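Subject: sequence -> structure tokens, single chain

Hey, anyone have a minute? Need the predicted structure for the following. Not urgent.
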Amino acid sequence: MPILKTQSIVLRRFPIRETSLIAVLFTKDFGKIHGIFKGIRKDPKKFASPVDIFSVNEIVFYKSRNSSLHLVSQCELQAPMFMHSWDRQRIEAAGYVLRLTESLLPQWHKNEGLYNLLIDTLHLVSHIQDPNYVFTAYDIKALALTGFKPHIDSCVSCGNDVEKDLFFSVNQGGILCRNCLSRDSLAEPIMPAVVKAIRQINAMPIEKCGVLKLSQRMYNELTYIVHKFLEYHLDIKARHISQKAGAVC
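Reply:
Had a minute. Here:
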């Protein structure tokens, strides 16, 4: 079995037998893997990390050729990320981005851009005044980084540029012009400003997304469209959390 070393984020963990646990890890160099930590529940000091969710660790593991479980032999804590000062809102925000990340990633698919986005987002949860805005911003940017983003640069059907009279088609995966509405009778009007906001979020670092000021109507439409897209194409139930008008996400 090859021995590999990498940095990783703990997305989820659960016990196995009486002494061990399995963790879903998003590694910087190898993507998502399932690691087994033998004996950690019996002897927590066996590893130099408690393997808590949200935490960033450096791990050494043996890649199994016959199983989806890979034996972790060393685990050293790099950053806990979770803060005991987090309120319920922050815990929910951080937990949501972990669940979304796990759902988007296939196993053994390196995605360093998404890895860095997740690190930046977890830092934001700790330091910004209102952590709610990371929800939709993370949705939009994670979809783009994993190849699932909605097509919003032109009409998804005819390919023509569209600046007004826009309609969003969930089943077509993007915007339609008025001439192509026959492709989806359920397509819904979408404000050009919302399409512009999605483009801006994709183009800027997530820590800068909070400078975008949207009206409550624009914010509601943005989250509605993104959440419908997630649920239709990826079967991911996004969380709807009340927001203050003017906050981006």
